[in-house]
Amino acid sequence: MAVPLLDLRAQHEGIRDEVVAAMLAVVERQGFILGDPVAALEESVARLSNTKHAIGCANGTDAILLALRALDVGRGDEVITTPFTFFATAGAIHNVGATPVFADIDADTFNLSPQAAASALTARSKAVIPVDLFGQMAPIDAVAAALPALPIIEDAAQAIGARRRIGDAWVRAGENATIGTFSFFPSKNLGGYGDGGMMVTQRDDLAERLRRLRVHGGSRTYFHEEVGYNSRLDALQAAVLAAKLPHLEDWSAARRRNAAYYNDAFADLADVRPPVIDERNESIYNQYTLRVPRRDALLEHLKARQIGAAIYYPLPLHLQPCFSYLGYAEGAFPMAEAAAKQVISLPVFPELTTAQLDEVVESVRSFFQQ
Ligand SMILES: *Cc1c(COP(=O)(O)O)cnc(C)c1O
């Protein structure tokens, strides 16, 4: 039995009527740019994230870019971030004219190490971008303590609705950041039927600036305080996402159940290291990522059995050809480099059946028992 890494059609099956009705309502009204659907989704995401504001934009990459611009990060500034993330995190830093400064990750959680981030601080540091990788929040409290002078952009593209216990409160992804950013790329836990993104913040001034930056930098049409972007969240996408949002908690719980199923099933395999979730975190498992020896051979083995598996991410960002100008050499970030060689992500999407889970388990086990 083939098991895909992600099955968006299975998800659509279960919500077709709601989503199609929501899309049709936008089509009938012919209101495609901003307006009620976008405002309604912004309100719902702000409520979920315990933030005062949420501002939709075109995608999760732009969300980071707009956040950097709203914090006046530009030429001559440095932004500290992790080398073990999707490219967009560092791409956005480069694209506002600033310099990405990488710091190594925690060996267990794959998230930015607050200590490493602190040692990357210079007089030119202007912001820090921790990433909530694979669905578990970065230690936002420890990052803030390690870098008290820097605003935090939390790249929560993979972690909408994830929680972390800080003191005796549950804090949601984005809630404690200066600006939190989300992506609605179809493979994220809350995925649109196309691209989309959002920024959340508690600060009125930043919310106003972000709203302006997404429409060419003008708070009134045809009057521009600064040069911004065309980066709006599409109303059709907002309608789809609003229809899907009520299911998000259940979907994330199903992902956690699937992860627990794998953890049990692999517990006796000495070579397999299951994902480590910080005891203060509740992950939404955007990915279920093992660390294994002979990783590439396992990937081939799973491919041959038609099991969807993928490597997130095979080359850390400090070693990407486009960032050679930054001057990092191999060995600069040993934890990130080791992770890139060892990780493999398995299907964890909420609609997985027990038969599919068992097929994945058997396929992994057969590799290590041969
Ligand atoms: C997906 C993702 C992004 C970019 O989001 P897009 O909507 O694809 O632009 C940024 N950062 C991380 C960590 C992501 O996973």
Short description:
The protein has 370 residues and is an alpha/beta fold.
Q: How would you explain this protein's 3D organization?
A:
- 38% of the residues lie in helices and 13% in strands.
- By secondary structure, the chain is α/β, with parallel strands linked by helices.
- The protein has two domains: 8-246, Aspartate Aminotransferase, domain 2 (3-Layer(aba) Sandwich), CATH 3.40.640.10; 247-368, Aspartate Aminotransferase, domain 1 (Alpha-Beta Complex), CATH 3.90.1150.
- The strands form four sheets. A four-stranded mixed sheet has the order 1-9-8-5.
- Helix 1 packs across helix 8 (235-244), helix 2 packs across helix 8 and helix 3 crosses helix 7.
- It is globular, with a radius of gyration of 20 Å.
- Bound molecules: pyridoxal-5'-phosphate (PLP).
- Residues 59-61, 85-86, 88-89, 131, 155, 157-158, 183, 185, 195, 197 line the site of pyridoxal-5'-phosphate.
